[in-house]
């Protein structure tokens, strides 16, 4: 069949153009300039959001999406539950130290979310001691997240400052 013989995107587009022409269907070509402009505006909006947010889960989400966009030159809209897959994908696209930082931060974000859920779901049968231990653990996780948040944001903000300087 035709589909099994197509190996690249370029071959597919060529076949698609030929098929559209044979059917008298007019295909509109993509506007590269407009696509670049939309990509740039989307990236800038995400960066501005990243600059002002203090929520660790959102910092991780925005950083992951922006790193994906920088490494693939493609826009990505993904829910938070897809962040682990994005980080896994990035393992081959970004330096190992940056990936390790993301993985460490992700682990802390997950721990924080779990401890928040436990706090919300606490019953009256919990001992005072276990409640105090859980609160200490939550505080420790929060402090670690605060310490790393700047470094995670800098994966985007610091590298972009040098890129912007190079373009000028």
TrEMBL record:
<dbReference type="GO" id="GO:1990592">
    <property type="term" value="P:protein K69-linked ufmylation"/>
</dbReference>
<dbReference type="GO" id="GO:0005789">
    <property type="term" value="C:endoplasmic reticulum membrane"/>
</dbReference>
<protein>
    <recommendedName>
        <fullName>E3 UFM1-protein ligase-like C-terminal domain-containing protein</fullName>
    </recommendedName>
</protein>
<dbReference type="GO" id="GO:0061666">
    <property type="term" value="F:UFM1 ligase activity"/>
</dbReference>
<feature type="domain" description="E3 UFM1-protein ligase-like C-terminal">
    <location>
        <begin position="35"/>
        <end position="155"/>
    </location>
</feature>
<dbReference type="GO" id="GO:0032434">
    <property type="term" value="P:regulation of proteasomal ubiquitin-dependent protein catabolic process"/>
</dbReference>
<dbReference type="InterPro" id="IPR056761">
    <property type="entry name" value="Ufl1-like_C"/>
</dbReference>
<dbReference type="Pfam" id="PF25041">
    <property type="entry name" value="UFL1_C"/>
</dbReference>
<dbReference type="GO" id="GO:0034976">
    <property type="term" value="P:response to endoplasmic reticulum stress"/>
</dbReference>
<dbReference type="InterPro" id="IPR018611">
    <property type="entry name" value="Ufl1"/>
</dbReference>
């Amino acid at each position: 069949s035709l589909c099994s013989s197509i190996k690249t995107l370029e071959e597919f587009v060529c076949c698609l153009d030929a098929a559209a022409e044979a059917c008298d269907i007019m295909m509109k070509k993509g506007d590269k300039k407009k696509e670049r402009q939309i990509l740039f505006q989307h990236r800038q909006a995400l960066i501005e959001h990243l600059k002002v947010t203090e929520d660790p889960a959102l910092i991780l989400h925005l950083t992951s999406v922006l790193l994906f966009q920088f490494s693939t030159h493609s826009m990505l809209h993904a829910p938070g539950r897809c962040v682990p897959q994005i980080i896994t994908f990035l393992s081959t696209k970004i330096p190992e130290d940056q990936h390790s930082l993301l993985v460490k931060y992700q682990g802390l974000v997950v721990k924080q979310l779990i401890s928040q859920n436990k706090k919300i779901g606490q019953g009256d049968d919990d001992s005072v001691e276990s409640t105090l231990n859980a609160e200490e653990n939550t505080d420790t996780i929060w402090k670690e997240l605060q310490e790393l948040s700047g470094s995670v944001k800098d994966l985007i903000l610091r590298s972009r400052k040098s890129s912007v300087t190079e373009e000028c």
